[in-house]
Amino acid sequence: MTEPLRCSLNVSFHFPGRSLADALDGAAAAGFHAIELLDPYAVDLDELEQELASRGLRLDLFNLPMGDFAAGDRGIAGDPDRGEEFRRGVEAGVRIAERLGASKVNALAGRRLPSHTEADQLDHLVDQLDWAAERFAGAGVRVNVELLNPVETPGLLLDDLAKVLSVVAALDGRIGFQLDVYHLQRTQGELIPTIRTTAAVTGHVQIADAPERTEPGSGEIDYVNVLDALRATGYSGLVGCEYRPSAPGVDAFAWMATAGAVPA
Question: Domain 5-263 is classified in which CATH homologous superfamily?
Fold first, then answer.
């Protein structure tokens, strides 16, 4: 019998507007033991550790500091003017990972900047990720980098798959590719071939249907085929459910039984 894919839940996406305690209660009630957080820095670390432990939850993945998201920042790793800020964020991330047992972090590259050439930004990004990978290695944590789709957010530094994979290749296995099915679909499609060709460097997988970033089965992606392709590559990590329910009261996890997935 085929082993099911195990899923974590991104509580920041799934329970927007709810308090951390309510979101964690919701994750536990849905049967999840592993979660993702976009921004664990906004919560006191002692409090976060206690809130997770009291519900039998663990943090699997979180983002490195993204800058001012409301002001348009989408990460700072590729900004040569914010190198020290990024490194301070890495140090904060190491402390969080060590305390909470996270196994992966996601480093967003950020935007293209008119004050720097693209080549200079990419070189800076590679240097910063190399340094971050070394700092996190001592905690047993893998650094990943991902593609964000330029349909929603034009002007990104890593705005196509080739650029993301060139950065991963430049670091020769020291970082991984965070394969976000939603962002790939909105950027280029070709999901199944991409899953196959990036399998060797994929460090984490996230899912949502397109085009509304809602639960699988609510949009245009054939998730049974997509997850079958992922399973066929031998991927054994968690699959992060990074989506919003499509409607109030909808069973946002009904797709799991059909797709051969279970909460982790």
Answer: Divalent-metal-dependent TIM barrel enzymes (3.20.20.150)
